[in-house]
Amino acid sequence: RKSDGSYQETTFEYYTTFDGRRLLNIEGAETSQVGPSTITMDGLLVNPADTNGDGLIHGLSFDWTAFDIASTLDAVAGFSEARTVDEFREQTRGLVAYAQNILVADKYGDVLFTPYNAMPCRDHLPIEDGRWVTDADPQYLLDGTLYGGFEIPLNAQGMPDETFKSDPQRCVIPFDEMPQARSPASGFVMSANHDIAGVSFDNNLANDLHYLGGFWYPAFRAHTIDTHLKDIVSAQSANLDTMAELQGNHDSTMGQLLTPYILAALERAKLVTEDATDPQEVSLRETYLNATQHFNEAQTYFEEWLAADAPASSGVDTFYQQVTAEERRHSVATTLFNVWYRRMLERTFNDERLEWLWTGVDTRRLGRVLPRMLANRGAEPTEQRADYVVERGESIFFDDIQTEQTESSDELILTTLASVFTDLSQRQDGTGQGGFGTDDMSTWLWGMRHQVLFRSLLGSVAEDNPIVGLIGLSFSITTDNLPLIEDTDNDDPRAELINFPRNGDYYAVDSAGAPLDANHFFYSYGPVMRMVFHLTEDRVTGRNIIPGGQAANTEDPHFADQAALWLGNQTLPVRYHIDELLQGIESSERYLPR
Fold first, then answer.
1. Burial class (CB in 10 A: 0-12, 13-18, 19+), 122
2. 89-119 pLDDT, tens per residue?
């Protein structure tokens, strides 16, 4: 739109294949001169050509269900008119390119889980020995010369037409064959962005009724939610308080999984005698003896932590959290474990130059790898894995290929933990990270390293402009406008913090995982709402909170008021009915006709 109120129309050119796929890239030579065959591809001028001499001009294309979208907005609008979960489910039939895990409840006590959106069939892709053949795996690039694009055919009502079952380009997975659950015997439905139907549990996506996608998040959060919901249903204690408490659960599932392996390695190291001759046993004993006091102290922290279900406690007193002595001890265990976990991943994989595992979607799979490798040790492995070496009785990745000797997993576990002791004893590195500057392990509190950032979007769009970046910082929520605690002494380490200490770690229900490829434990991705509702025949009662405020003016009392509550997992009432709204009115405006 122009300054005078008029509009300027912009046309974007793109190229398609004969069957509707969009062309993303093409083999050829970049040019600055436009010729008869020059095309614009990914912002560059390209003359398509066979540059590798194989007699073909290769291209990269993609197809997307959104190209066939029609009545999705009508379906979403229909959600607000549905009176029962069954009416809601019927509305989802119109969803195209609307991939969501949807949970629904009605006042009659019924609940629904559905991930439905129109998906093309993949039944025509050839399979041999239970796996897709080369270039036919839908998780990766398909050979576009053999397997073409697809279409989501729609009927007169704008719903996916399921009558083209024999047409590989127009077949749609039938609505009733998508995984859905209505009022199951468990008494609840839940989702945490994990595998929607358990199709990946056998490590094979090619042997199911339909291919539903992949690269789901590990089911650690889902496991915690499922476990607690079963207890709540069994105790008939479902209410606003118990549901809100579950949303704030910060038990470390990864800690529950992996800490026993640390403790087992410590016990094995203690059993190695002075006259041992096996190089791995000798190295294990030396590692333990070089830091015996710290190892024994850490073992006590870990054992107490596991006995309490490994709560990832902050351990730092703030205006939104007052911690107990027990929580402070659990905080130390949380620090030890999380620093060890990240370094254990690095030392396991980085010597093989697998740093790419740390970025993008692959971090979802990375969370599954280490637990499975550690579980798959011994003369009789629990599963057949390509990385398992019979002579070693464990994964080949545990050996550091940069050294002459062959390291064992136990040695790697303990040498990694020993490096954690050393580094956390050092001084800080000037960034608020690094060590604590003392050998006193009781001061190694998780919240002093693990903090949430409330940053303005202006900062992210102006990363290369320091002036705009400073303006963006002024619209961020920091300890300058939400002091951590009143009258903080200058010698108090909390006085140096800009961000906010928080409970939680990777895969906790109260999501608080820092990027795995970062050199710090700050995070800025968490629950965008903490919403809980109770439905009865004539009343809707609820609570909610957002990590920010309702005003953009930094001087407004509502600029950061909800962030202050969000930090402590506190909520505000949702004023759903008129009488509640009138009780909570802060100000009002009256509009009259001219």
1. buried
2. 999 999 999 989 999 999 999 999 999 999 9
User: What value, to the nearest 5°, has the Cα angle with vertex 354 and ends 350 and 355?
Assistant: 75
pLDDT at 430 over 60: no
pLDDT at 43: 81
Beta bridge partners of 318: 321
Q: Give tens-digit pLDDT for 388-405.
A: 999 999 999 999 888 888
**Strand (E) positions, 14-79?**
22-26, 28-30, 39-41, 44-48, 59-62
Give the 3-state secondary structure of residue 64: coil
Instruction: Give the burial string for 554-572 (b: 16+ CB within 10 Å, else e).
Output: eeeeebbbbbbbbbebebb
CB 100 within 8 Å of CB 179: no
Which residues on neighbouring strands pair with residue 532, listed in sequence order? Answer: 543
Instruction: Identify residue 146 by its one-letter amino acid code.
Output: L
> How far apart, in whole angstroms, are the C-alpha atoms of residue 288 and residue 166?
65
List strands edge to edge, sheet with 500-501: 500-501, 450-452, 521-523
Angular region, 130: left φ>0, alpha ψ -120 to 50, beta rest: left
The Cα 13–Cα 33 span in angstroms is: 18
Query: Does residue 287 surpass a pLDDT of 80?
Result: yes
- Cβ-count burial 90-113 (b if 16+ within 10 Å, e if not): ebbbbbbebeeebebbbeeeebbb
Band the pLDDT of 559: cuts 50, 70, 90. very high
List the Cα angle 17/21/27 in 5-degree steps. 60
Please state, in angstroms and rounded to a whole number, the distance separating the CA atoms of residues 87 and 107.
13
Closest CA to 323 of 527, 526, 503, 547: 503
Kindly report the pTM of this predicted structure: 0.88
The residue written with tokens 């006709």 in the block is: 593
Could you please report the per-residue DSSP string of 499-552? Answer: SEE----TT-SS--PPPTTSSSEEE----S---EEEE-SS-EEEEE--SS-S--
Measured in residues, the chain has a length of 594
Using DSSP's 3-state secondary structure scheme, residue 102 falls into strand
